């Protein structure tokens, strides 16, 4: 943390103001005591006059001269006055230092108590994520400024959570509603192309429409999965991640062989509490992306271990480092426009990141040393 904390600054202010007030009090006390003590010269003169009057009435003579007597009395009173003021200053300084230390200590404790609600607000804000807006501060206490701030923050979180839920429901409902017309459209095109008398131009157009329809269906399916994972997990079951990877690799072996890509695995037992369907989709997206964005004769290496839980490396074209963060954004690809690549819908890594976050983990990527990409997924310990 740069600079002094607010608690330290408040403590310094408390201690400094108390020390200043104590110094003013000591000076005032010193002046009052100094004015209350008798003046040595005046007190000696008055004492000699009183003694002359007493001895004059009794008819006696004073032994010694009046000047020597006055000097002796003045010295004694001056010593008493100096000793009293010195004792006052030393005692006041010691008391001031001790009380200032106690003031700093109590100031530190009181500042911490006063700032505790702010720490609760800061902690709640740090734990917030787009998919986890269920945390609230619920500050107890008198209706002061801090209570008002905490309640305002809770109200803002309620509105944000409602807005995010509404957005996710809209995406899920819209994606679900779009699946039916796309399926009907695909069926109509296939029926139209099944006839023996279809002209070549019409067959070419129908084939292109089928590819476009297939891409739209993949995009809608990806949006549904993305909306589901963004909502969070309703329940968790133990999932063997290594077994999921083995199943996905077997299912994509034909695609890898067709692309001329060799897939190798190194699987250690690893259990992840979560949703088996979403975890399988995460692994599928990573393996399919590694096969699709590769070169003939390339390779894909999939490893399951402790930390990271999953790592997928592949050969392929060189990926610029500055382009890696954008790969986790929806509809973003390297080296192509938003609609320039019909192999995938551009949601693969977005779904990977969303599923990982729904399971309390995260996904990250970095360029391979000789091209391709290295994607790692980390999950909390089982």
TrEMBL record:
<dbReference type="InterPro" id="IPR004358">
    <property type="entry name" value="Sig_transdc_His_kin-like_C"/>
</dbReference>
<keyword id="KW-0597">Phosphoprotein</keyword>
<dbReference type="InterPro" id="IPR036097">
    <property type="entry name" value="HisK_dim/P_sf"/>
</dbReference>
<dbReference type="InterPro" id="IPR003661">
    <property type="entry name" value="HisK_dim/P_dom"/>
</dbReference>
<keyword id="KW-0547">Nucleotide-binding</keyword>
<dbReference type="InterPro" id="IPR005467">
    <property type="entry name" value="His_kinase_dom"/>
</dbReference>
<keyword id="KW-0902">Two-component regulatory system</keyword>
<feature type="transmembrane region" description="Helical">
    <location>
        <begin position="12"/>
        <end position="32"/>
    </location>
</feature>
<dbReference type="Pfam" id="PF00672">
    <property type="entry name" value="HAMP"/>
</dbReference>
<dbReference type="InterPro" id="IPR003594">
    <property type="entry name" value="HATPase_dom"/>
</dbReference>
<keyword id="KW-0067">ATP-binding</keyword>
<keyword id="KW-1133">Transmembrane helix</keyword>
<dbReference type="InterPro" id="IPR050428">
    <property type="entry name" value="TCS_sensor_his_kinase"/>
</dbReference>
<keyword id="KW-0472">Membrane</keyword>
<keyword id="KW-0418">Kinase</keyword>
<feature type="transmembrane region" description="Helical">
    <location>
        <begin position="85"/>
        <end position="109"/>
    </location>
</feature>
<feature type="domain" description="HAMP">
    <location>
        <begin position="112"/>
        <end position="165"/>
    </location>
</feature>
<protein>
    <recommendedName>
        <fullName>histidine kinase</fullName>
        <ecNumber>2.7.13.3</ecNumber>
    </recommendedName>
</protein>
<dbReference type="Pfam" id="PF02518">
    <property type="entry name" value="HATPase_c"/>
</dbReference>
<dbReference type="GO" id="GO:0005524">
    <property type="term" value="F:ATP binding"/>
</dbReference>
<keyword id="KW-0808">Transferase</keyword>
<feature type="domain" description="Histidine kinase">
    <location>
        <begin position="173"/>
        <end position="382"/>
    </location>
</feature>
<keyword id="KW-0812">Transmembrane</keyword>
<dbReference type="Pfam" id="PF00512">
    <property type="entry name" value="HisKA"/>
</dbReference>
<dbReference type="InterPro" id="IPR003660">
    <property type="entry name" value="HAMP_dom"/>
</dbReference>
<dbReference type="InterPro" id="IPR036890">
    <property type="entry name" value="HATPase_C_sf"/>
</dbReference>
